[in-house]
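Reviewer 2 asked us to include a model.

Predict the structure of this chain.
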Amino acid sequence: MGEGNRFWRMATRRRLNRRQVITYGGAAGAGLAAMALAGCGSKSGGTQQKGGANPQNQPKRGGSLVLPLNFQQGFDPHVTTVSQTSTYGYFYQNLVRTNPRTYDVEPEIAQKWETPSPTEMVFTIAPNVAWQNRPPANGRPLKVDDIIFSYNRAKTNDPRFIYKSALASVDKMEATSANTLKLTLKSPNAYQLGNLTVAGLKILAPEVVEAAKGNFGEAATAVGTGAFVLQSREIGVGSTMVRNPSYWKPGLPYLDRIDGRVFLDSGPEFAAFTAGQIDKDVVPGDQSSDVETKQKDKYNLDWNGDQAGYLLIANTKRKPFDDPRVTRALRLVVDHQEYKTAWAAPWFGRGRYASIFPAALESWDLTEDEYSKYLEWKSPKDDAVKEAVSLLTAAGFTKDKPFKFTIAGVISDYNTASRTLLQAQFKRLGQGLVAPEIQGFEEAAFTPLRSSGNFDYYAAGNSPGGIQPDDWFSDVYQTGGSRNYGKMSDPKLDQMIANQRTLLDEAQRKKAIREIIIYMIDTSPYTFQAGVFDLNASKKNVMATPPEGKSFKWSEHYELVWRNS
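Predicted model (structure tokens):
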């Protein structure tokens, strides 16, 4: 027992800030703080918390919330994008979950876990976990085999199942008793516990999957173990969730009801918030400074390092994107400073330089000053443009025969703005050698297009659904990663990624990750537009809401949200 416990203690050791957890969860949050085992992530140093619950207040039961919430895809968590499946925690649950302020791993369906050896994880299921009392599960107790079924399904060798990388290290799953799950790993992996918190690894009942017959399109198909029951959903209009009357966690949830309203743009959405029609919102970037300075006493305010990454991805399986000269040149003609000021700031609130990680992982990334010394981020862009022109010329492109391709992405206000900005940068800084077109898709249409590799180049959000460096390495950058949509493949990078997983000491792991970042700056066909920070605002009488981004939600934690009036 000693060797295994030592491995996992070191691999998951982080400080737990009790004040933050109490602010987040009230009385229930304090209880979770006592149980929590520290995770691998760390809340970005660029965030701050303002307002929130008063520790002197006790959570009150009752009341409702109205939230901006768009269930625009089906309710199958194993195949839908993070922007959707991260909103499914109201009614589905993971084996374990992430604390949204400290990024520590917390109990969820699993009450506790033990590590007999570095390759063994034993989870004890919490007592009385039951499916919601609606067909076809009809309130039956959850079984360990339900978890095994869900994980095997998520590992399906099909491009639609985009979270399989989170389970790549798992060699064997078995129910060792009626309430005990044992996972055996192929080799020690410092991140595997945190991998189980990934938004797409929610647990489903086999009979629910069977009844859906591949189509989770209706609210009635969303049958989970979570705190709220999805009562209705009307695409493009809204949704209604009500308290699960037989929820297995005593005293939770606090709220009776959550109503979702659909907004297609951030302007009307925030106008509805300021008019008192919705209870929480992400402040539009161009209004965040005004709200923070002039309206700080009116709302609970909370900066969030966004968990989503806004990437530029070349499809390396299409010519000439298989030519490193071309992908390197395209990276060099991206003006990241302009992305910060003309895109991140007005659409989100704040931006930072980034290359492979979102703002939520700022503490694992290079500093902005360090980035500014590399050619891609160096200002002015003269040297980068000169190098890009040389590379593109060597690859055979001229002003008379420029490089023509299409930049694809999702139709939304900030994503459309990003594509438009990128097209302008490519044309301006590409010195006539780059002539891209842009094309937008509704998210439901873009998801299969991206998964099948049916694109040239895309500028859009991407997230593995977890908050660890290795979530990004294994899902987005490693050969065969389930969200490595451009199919980049680099054996040296794969080995560097594999090596850092075995490092128990966080300082050693950070050093190894820094080496990976620097290597990828020189070699990767992908890059980030910018890391972004969002300002959350909620009404003063709405307590314990988690900080969230535009496309990543901590929906499972709304069981702890309450109203004090």
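The chain has 17 helices and 21 strands. Confidence is low (pLDDT under 50) at residues 13-54. We have added this to the supplementary material.
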